[in-house]
Amino acid sequence: MSCPEIGQWTSPAEGSSGSAEPKGLRSTQGIPGDGPREHLRVDQHDQMALGAGALPCIFLTQRVRLTGATVMFRLVGMVSVGERTRRPPRVSSVQLKVVMAVTGAVLVLYLVAHMVGNLKFFFGAESLDRYAAWLREVGEPALPAQGLLWLVRVVLLVSVVAHVGSAAVLAGRARRARPVGYAHRRPVRTGYASRTMRWGGVIVLLFVIYHILDLTTGTLNPNGVHGEVYANVVADFSRWYVTLAYTVAVLAVGFHLRHGVWSALQTLGRSSGPAQRRYKAVALVVAVVVTAGFLAVPFAVVLGVGRG
């Protein structure tokens, strides 16, 4: 038989008369919450009024009514005893946060390098196209054609998978840590960037997929000629809706960077007051510089600056 259902009522009269608690329910610790609550254990050998032969469970109960000497309880949550004794996860939450910090740093370094390369747009078509050709040839003959480029892509893919996977596991653990929601949750003061981390990450991921199909493979680019990077960029951002979508995605990257860099510095560094202020300043500078650098090119195309 399974554990009693959440919301079920019980009282001492159903277990043993005159006791302060139902038979089989033993108070173990107080649980903060709305109204007087107790954490009650159901012993395996007890005959429970809630159902004979019920499996051992941990019940989160709320004492809700007093009628003479009778105390009424309402089950508001439960966890099986087996869950209390289960082994800790192989990868701790601290280790997952370190993975997020390290992979995030890899992605930030790539963003900065990619932004610097994009700014060659302002030196003309020949400069940008020659730079793009060099990226495909760098490392030769020690490496095969585009060998270093593919190595970078593999590292980026692994970093993205590890980063997103760690974030998903941490979010799942946070939800499971509080199976019963707070009746009255105190508002927590958080920044806009921290509140938009998840949907911002989704926007960035979707845009990266589009960006690859547009300017890497040329599938969605109106010009789409391999090697003519400058002409492809101009053709791409000459469409206002592409520029608008690019702007939204880059702004999402900026918000994500601001909170992500600060969080990574916290994980890998100190958490004192002066250090916190420095971390926030560094995160803001990185976010602003990267955002401005990536938006410079599409807005230059829209305004007709830098063509030639």
Commentary on this structure:
- By secondary structure, the protein is an alpha+beta fold.
- It folds into two domains: 76 residues, no CATH class; 205 residues, Up-down Bundle (3 helical TM bundles of succinate and fumarate reductases).
- It has ten helices and five strands.
- It has a five-stranded antiparallel β-sheet.
- A hairpin with a 2-residue loop joins strand 4 and strand 5.
- The chain is globular and about 60 Å long.
- It starts with 8 loop residues before the first strand and ends in a 5-residue tail after the last helix.
Helices and strands in order:
Elements: E1 9-10, H1 12-15, E2 25-30, E3 37-42, E4 57-67, E5 70-80, H2 81-84, H3 93-118, H4 125-137, H5 147-176, H6 192-195, H7 197-216, H8 229-237, H9 240-268, H10 273-303
Antiparallel strand pairs: 1-5, 2-3, 3-4, 4-5
Helix pairs in contact: 3-5, 3-9, 3-10, 7-9, 9-10
Q: What's the SSE pattern?
A: EHEEEEHHHHHHHHH
Spatial arrangement of strands, main beta sheet: 1-5-4-3-2
Number of helices: 10
Beta-strand segment tally: 5
Helix content: 55-70%
Task: Provide a concise account of the structure shown.
The protein is an alpha+beta fold and 308 residues long.
Based on the model shown, name its key terms.
308 residues, alpha+beta, 3 helical TM bundles of succinate and fumarate reductases, 10 helices, 12% strand
